[in-house]
Design goal:
The chain has helices at residues 22-25, 32-38, 58-66, 69-74, 76-89, 103-107, 129-133, 140-143, 145-158, 171-180, 188-196, 198-222, 239-245, 247-256, 273-278, 293-300, 319-333, 352-363, and strands at 95-96, 112-115, 119-122, 164-169, 226-231, 262-266, 284-287, 305-310, 338-342. It has 365 residues and is α/β, with parallel strands linked by helices. The strands form two sheets. It has a seven-stranded parallel sheet with strand order 1-4-5-6-7-8-9, sandwiched between helices. Helix 12 (198-222) runs parallel beside helix 14 (247-256) and helix 17 (319-333) packs parallel to helix 18 (352-363). The protein is globular, with a radius of gyration of 19 Å. The N and C termini lie far apart (41 Å). Coproporphyrinogen I is lined by residues 51-55, 64, 69, 96, 98-102, 114, 119-120, 167, 183, 230, 232, 345.
């Protein structure tokens, strides 16, 4: 059997991508994260945590009481303030913009309510082929201009302390919410829709890809230093369905987003690491905790950066245990071409000092 490792790479990750955007990077005082993405050697790996600006931070919860969710996303001063909370309180090497993947379905006309204890609930989930085929492109600059304003305000507040990460949901994961109408363990309505109406599903996925490309390029022009694509529900698909409903769209996003490195997080799709590494232009793959470092490296090869993959629940361990585990995780991944992170978002019940211990353990590596 021919292994992908024996074939030429689809395209090498473009190591100098962030150099295209020197107007963004020249004032950065900490560029460890961008160096790791570019494959440059670093004294220690950079660290940040998925969902680091969220619900485990008491300072965030105060703002949550005062403003509703989309007001927080739409007000540039609040976006800047929330994005910087973990930078001030915990000290990671990168900031991730405060926003949500569901701003895209919202821009497409599905209004969304964030129900406490339930999560997001989308109005008019897609139930018919006609409804899917009726979806039309949106002008990203107009519909999501508030995100770009938030990026500018955030970079002003960050003042070059750390790079800023932009993001979007992957087409497959966005389709899950748009069809299911809310979070789900199996997204069985969304999967059923794809199997019953593949033509309509591909119309939605393709439209979401166009919008995602425009949206991420607009974020880069507004000043983010890298972008991450969250395919949070990739692992609900088996390899064949992943190749049908997720992979081609992720591939196109990495080809058409220009001017900053693209990080792909296909959660649960360990079986696709090799393909994602060889058949996309991603600068890095973010991995969840169900994959060991050695397996991930062997599957992805050495010409791509890996990010992850501490089990978020393990942040509930005693602090000395967290310290030891972080050290051993870095030893196993290696300090270069590696970004320390969690395998998924931080949990709301993680004590702030445990999150800080995680970050500090990397800084003292
Ligand atoms: O009022 C609140 O605080 C609600 C909780 C919350 C927060 C803090 C939601 C609702 N979204 C966010 C912000 C958010 N979402 C960020 C940026 C800030 C940060 O927390 O650091 C990011 C990167 C996201 C991305 C996101 N939203 C993803 C992909 C990452 C992942 O966790 O897999 C997904 C799947 C969502 C959808 C979503 N939004 C909110 C919730 C509770 C959910 C998940 C619902 C579900 O479980 O299906």
């Amino acid at each position: 059997m021919i292994s992908l490792h024996d074939l030429p790479r689809y395209d090498m990750p473009q190591n100098d991508l962030h150099q295209n955007d020197l107007h963004h990077t020249d004032k950065l005082r900490n560029d460890l994260y961008l160096k790791a993405l570019a494959g440059e050697p670093v004294p220690r790996p950079p660290v940040w945590m998925m969902r680091q600006a969220g619900r485990y931070l008491p300072s965030y919860l105060k703002l949550q009481e005062k403003y509703d969710f989309f007001t927080r996303c739409e007000t540039p001063e609040l976006v800047a303030e929330i994005t910087c909370l973990p930078i001030d309180e915990i000290g990671p090497d990168a900031a991730i913009l405060f926003s949500d993947i569901l701003v895209v379905p919202r821009a497409l006309g599905q209004s969304i309510e964030m129900k406490s204890g339930v999560g997001p609930v989308l109005e008019n989930p897609i139930q018919s082929e006609d409804q899917a085929l009726a979806l039309k492109p949106v002008d990203v600059a107009e519909a999501l201009g508030y995100v770009m304003k938030g990026i500018r305000a955030t970079n002003e507040r960050l003042a070059g302390r750390v790079p800023l990460i932009g993001f979007s949901g992957a087409p497959w994961t966005l389709l899950c919410y748009m069809v299911e109408g809310r979070g789900s363990k199996d997204f069985s309505k969304a999967k059923a829709f794809c199997y019953e109406y593949p033509h309509a599903a591909h119309h939605v996925l393709s439209l979401l890809t166009d919008i995602t490309v425009d949206y991420l390029n607009a974020q880069i022009r507004a000043g983010v230093h890298a972008v991450q694509v969250f395919d949070s529900w990739a692992g609900l698909l088996g390899p064949d369905d992943f190749n049908t409903f997720a992979m081609p769209y992720l591939q196109r996003i990495t080809e058409e987003v220009k001017g900053a490195p693209v990080v792909l997080f296909a959660k649960g799709a360990w079986y696709a690491l090799e393909l994602l590494s060889w058949q996309t232009r991603a600068a890095a793959l973010s991995i969840d905790w169900t994959v060991g470092p050695e397996y991930a490296r062997q599957a992805a090869g050495w010409d791509i950066t890996l990010q992850g993959n501490y089990d978020p629940s393990r942040l509930l361990s005693p602090v000395p245990v967290i310290r030891d585990q972080v050290k051993s995780m870095i030893d196993r991944f290696g300090k270069d071409r590696y970004i320390v992170n969690l395998g998924h978002g931080i949990l709301p019940n993680v004590p702030v000092d445990h999150a800080k211990a995680f970050v500090d353990a990397v800084k003292s590596y």
